[in-house]
Amino acid sequence: MNSPRLLCVLVVDDSPHVRARLRRLLEESDSRCVVTEAGTAADVARALKSLRPDVVVLDLSLPDGNGFELLPFIKRVAPKCSVILLTNHEGPSIRERAIDLGADYVFRKSIEFELVPVVMQRVTERLRSGGTSTPKPLNQLKGGPR
After folding, report:
1. How many CA atoms lie within 13 A of 72 on its CB side?
2. Would you call 56 helix, strand, or coil by DSSP?
3. Which among 6, 27, 67, 140 would be 20 to 30 A from 125, CA to CA?
4. CA 12 from chain center: how many Å?
5. Residue 2: which pLDDT band, with cuts at 50, 70 and 90?
6. pTM
7. In angstroms, rounded to a whole number, what is the distance separating the alpha carbons of residues 146 and 140?
8. Which CATH architecture describes the domain 7-131?
C-alpha cells in the first residue's frame, strides 16, 4: 500500500521566529508536509531551482525584496503551487494587488496566522484526491473573505 504523498511547503519570512512558528503549526496540524525555509528573496530563487512546492507561504516584507516582486516569479517557476501571502500591512489595496500578482490567499499575521494550516489541509486533501493545488475561495475558509 502506498503512503500518501507529502506536501512540499516553502516558508519564506525574514524572521526566524515566524518561520519556526509556521513550522510548528504545520507539524502540529493534520497535513503531512516537508517544510523548507527561506529568509530572503535570493533564498527563494535558489530554493525554487530544486523544489517544486505545492504551497509557498510568503512574507510581504523581505530584506532584499518583497512578496509583490516574488509572486510573478514563483507562479512562473511553480505555476501549480498555491501561494499564501502573509503581511502585517492592512488594507484592500494590498490584498487586491497580491491577488492580481498571483497570491491565492492573503492573511494578516496579527489575526489570520492560524488559517495557514487550514489551507495546507485543503491543499493536501485536493492533491490526495488527484486534483491540483488550485485553491478554494477564501469565503470557504473559517473567517471568510477579508
Report:
1. 5
2. strand
3. 67
4. 8
5. low
6. 0.85
7. 12
8. 3-Layer(aba) Sandwich (3.40)
